[in-house]
Specification:
The protein is mainly β. The protein has strands spanning 2-6, 9-12, 17-24, 32-38, 45-50, 57-59, 67-72, 77-82, 91-98, 112-113, 117-122. The chain is built from no helices and eleven strands. Strands 2, 4, 5, 6, 9, 10 and 11 form a seven-stranded mixed β-sheet that branches. The protein has a four-stranded antiparallel β-sheet with strand order 1-3-8-7, with no helix packed on it. A hairpin with a 6-residue loop joins strand 5 and strand 6. The protein is globular, with a radius of gyration of 13 Å.
């Protein structure tokens, strides 16, 4: 499956932003999906995952209660709604696909990756 992330931009602290990840190729509904992020000089870190059906989700502690992951299998698209943004949310955000029912917090469990979209939050 090929992935294309979009929706990044520059926001102020407290603002909201919605990222999208459009999939093409293989059947999107066969894949659990995830969002990861990487800030300059840091390792890639888990943000959120969603299972194939959308029934199961998981979040990093740092974003829980502020970010919401969702998917629309009919549109082959996954979303990340980010509210109450903080400067520490600044990073390149990547979407990823895993040929499994459930998501994962480990980048190595995902076989397909999008190109990344930059999110910058100013204080």
């Amino acid at each position: 499956v090929q992935l294309q992330a979009s929706g990044g931009g520059l926001r102020q602290a407290g603002d909201s932003l919605r990222l999208s990840c459009a999939a093409s190729g293989r059947t999107f509904s066969n894949y659990a999906m995830g969002w990861f992020r990487q800030a300059p000089g840091k390792e890639r870190e888990f943000v959120a995952y969603i299972g194939r059906s959308g029934a199961f989700t998981g979040y990093a502690v740092s974003v829980k209660g502020r970010f919401t992951i969702s998917r629309d299998n009919t549109k082959k698209t996954m979303y990340l709604q980010m509210n109450s943004l903080k400067p520490e949310d600044t990073a390149v955000y990547y979407c990823a696909a895993r040929n499994a029912y459930y998501g994962s917090t480990q980048p190595s469990d995902f076989g397909s990756w999008g190109q990344g979209t930059q999110v910058t939050v100013s204080s």
